[in-house]
Design goal:
The structure is a single chain. The chain is α/β, with parallel strands linked by helices and 252 residues long. The chain has a domain at 4-179: Alpha-Beta Complex (2-enoyl-CoA Hydratase, Chain A, domain 1), CATH 3.90.226.10. Helix content is 46%, strand content 14%. It contains ten helices and nine strands. Strands 1-2-3-4-6-9 form a six-stranded mixed sheet, with helices on both faces. A three-stranded mixed sheet has the order 5-7-8. Helix 1 (28-42) packs parallel to helix 2 (75-86) and helix 4 (137-145) crosses helix 9. The radius of gyration is 17 Å and the shape is globular.
């Protein structure tokens, strides 16, 4: 599967790994491959939990706005694939090393659990780009951190280090950098050690209505992203980010 690999072990845990180091930027094709992997594993009796991880320095830096064709230009196709991640029946543990930024944060939050380190960084940096947030963060971020903290993180776009992320509920385990993937696998193996039918039933109850809420949020997010993509502020935000300087927004 192009930039996504799947490895299933005898602990009933599948490791789904993204291979676009060092930043692991995504596009619709990558999210489609992840969703295909999840659906295949949903049908595999030998899989009871998934570890989502990435090769390289960062978990996922979201969209590559410096690319010739930016995912900002394809939000609806991207989010159609993202809906499939939320619809997966198998619990997912994300191993978040380095940065989870923008849509990469949304990808991390599509998982049931997140394992991070003090060196991990969580950032919903959309407003600093003159852009609207996406990937279902309208639903997942308030659910994890609360409405007020979600508003803070979305409007400031600030970086949240691992310790604060744990206190806010953005991650569930905090370990040393070198232990992130191992700890994620350990948690996934604990999930896989429970009765699989009970796990699926409990998870479905607690996630009741989630797909519908995410679908509605993605529609709103995509619409606003398409609108703001045409603004001067968005062009300035992207240029400033690529130039590594503070943006000078004009409100137009």
């Amino acid at each position: 599967m192009s930039d996504v690999t799947v490895a299933l072990d005898d602990a009933f845990v599948a490791t789904v790994e993204i291979h676009r180091p060092p930043a692991n930027y995504f596009d619709a094709a990558l999210i489609r491959d992840l969703a295909d992997a999840y659906e295949t594993l949903d049908a595999a009796r030998a899989c009871r939990a998934i570890v989502l991880c990435s090769e390289g320095k960062h978990f996922c830096a979201g969209a590559n706005f410096g690319a010739a064709t930016s995912p900002a230009e394809e939000p609806r196709s991207l989010y159609r694939e993202a809906q499939r991640l939320f619809a997966a029946r198998t619990p997912v543990v994300a191993a978040v090393q380095g940065a989870a930024v923008g849509g990469g944060l949304g990808l991390a939050f599509s998982a049931d659990f997140r394992v991070a380190s003090p060196g991990s960084r969580f950032s919903a940096n959309f407003a600093r780009l003159g852009f609207h947030h996406g990937f279902g963060l309208s639903v997942t971020l308030p659910a994890l951190a609360g409405q007020q903290s979600a508003l803070d993180l979305l409007l400031t776009g600030r970086r949240v280090p691992g310790e604060e992320a744990l206190s806010l509920g953005l991650c569930d385990r905090l370990v040393e950098d070198r232990e992130v993937r191992l700890a994620a696998h350990t948690l996934a193996a604990e999930l896989a050690g429970s009765a699989p039918l009970a796990v699926q039933s409990i998870r479905a109850t607690l996630r009741a209505g989630l797909i519908e809420r995410v679908k509605a949020a993605l529609e709103r997010e995509a619409s606003e992203q398409e609108r703001l993509r045409e603004t001067e502020d968005f062009r300035e935000g992207v240029t400033a980010s690529l130039d590594r300087r503070a943006p000078r927004f004009q409100g137009r």
